[in-house]
Amino acid sequence: MAEKRLDSVRLQNIAQAYGQSAALMSAVELGLFTKVSQGAETIDQIASALDIHPTNAERLVTMCAAMDLLAVENGRYRNAPDVERFLVEGSPRYAGAWMLFTKPGWGEWGRLTDHLRNKDLSVMGDITDYTVDDARRYHKATFSIGLGAGRRFVRQVDLSKRNKILDLGGGSGAYCIAAATAHPHIRATVFDLPPVATVASEFIAENGVSDRVAAQAGDFTADPFPTDADVVIMASNLPMYGRDMIQTVIGKAYEALLPGGEMHLIGETLNDDRAGPIGPAYWGLGQATQDTLGLAHSEADCVGYFTNAGFQNVQVHAFVEGSLSRVCGFKPV
Ligand SMILES: C[S@@+](CC[C@H](N)C(=O)[O-])C[C@H]1O[C@@H](n2cnc3c(N)ncnc32)[C@H](O)[C@@H]1O
Q: Checking CA distances to 214, which of 27, 112, 232, 309 falls within 20 to 30 Å?
């Protein structure tokens, strides 16, 4: 059989992929999917519902249909199933804020080559400069996706015989809120940088678990950890740091855990061949725009960090297929 002749279509599509990002983000900002869900089906109806020019409506829905975000039949548009589930405002699953989460970094991605030439890299990125307002915006986005992840964690991990969670870089407190809601006996500490701890306290109060969940301000690279937890969670901050720092933090967590306790690292991890998936590779490369030492870690890297720290029975579980894995280990009694 003759080999397919190579052309440049794939390369062109990758080079222009930022147009896909822009289309999705604008669709979210304009409320396109919400209006489609509410019954705006034709280009004229969509233009009128979004209060934009019909030509712009046509351009946007054409791109969204090409990206399979919208399905079109006889000039009538409807949302793809995942769009309907996550991008319709008013739903408890609405994750529009998460779709816009990386938009503030847009300009720096345009300067990626300059960043890649910079050899002066730091341990931590711009999160150290965050104000409480920055942290509020950031965690409005993480909470929109994090509470679902927290509930998933609670379904996957048996906490019925556990007493106290320490959530390192716990952000909004989503995991602790989900755990405390599901288990009336569980107490938890959300450990995060000072502005984030302020915001975490707000989320904890809004979700009615302030009696058992508290936020503690601290930098997990430098400050000591509370020593009364039998579960440590560290979720979705793995690519923010390089290998040495992740090893250090996991070692500190091991020392702080009560004997018999367990740690769960939930993160965007590369497959062991380091050839994907794209999510962790994206987050790792994104750290270049912040001039940090952060990068994508593989599942095998994480197993190594746990084992070096002293954890036993180290296991890797798929957490969200194709996106997040959960590495766990146990401290001997
Ligand atoms: C993407 S958010 C994830 C939040 C939460 N774990 C979740 O999954 O919803 C990463 C969090 O790690 C926190 N973080 C990063 N470096 C930290 C450090 N050195 N000390 C404490 N928290 C840190 C950030 O402030 C942020 O809240």
A: 309
